[in-house]
């Protein structure tokens, strides 16, 4: 079932250059029935946002900065989120910000049974990331978009710097997750592995490492082996994965 999503954007915190990729990503998870962006629209810094709001049917919410040094935009966004929650018009939220001030909001929405997606830049503090069901990095969406389009080699090279290298810590996370789900022979259904990885680490995304899907990411790591099995209906193959058994060296003399 498609989720009805409330998309709330921190206009003071998110660059407008990500709008296309961001809205396309949100559409994968549900129907954005409410789309609002918050900021002080008298501020020249938001001029670029003004030009694209109509094209994306996003409603601008004016919030003046009454007190210097205080972020009134955050407060307005949080109040609106709670009003929307109690209206019972949506069953999910997409909070677009790189600001840790929304950590408690994400937690509260999930406590109320809402599905919460977070979208922000890689500078986003970890408390906000782990408070969401899933967190997506804007830089990765931009990189993916540029990979799909014919661009100059220099631009692609610059964008590729946003792709993370797979670390031993990442491999340990995948290894433990496969072990958690494996049967007596160690095999685990890859779909379940992906779901549990997301629960353990909301910002886990194969695209962070330059892979469109989890399968090629797993295949790129020598620590795992993959097996394809026929589905019961025979329509498509199911993919299973397990940790490769380490060869034990004979220490006897």
Overview of the molecule:
This protein is of the alpha/beta class. It is 38% helix and 21% strand. It has 10 helices and 9 strands. The strands form 2 sheets. It has a 6-stranded parallel beta sheet, sandwiched between helices. A 3-stranded antiparallel beta sheet has the order 7-9-8. Strand 4, helix 4 and strand 5 form a beta-alpha-beta unit. The longest helix is centred in the N-terminal third of the chain and has 16 residues, at 72-87. Mean pLDDT is 86; it is low at 247-253.
Provide the descriptors you would attach to this structure in a database record:
elongated, 10 helices, alpha/beta, 9 strands, disordered C terminus
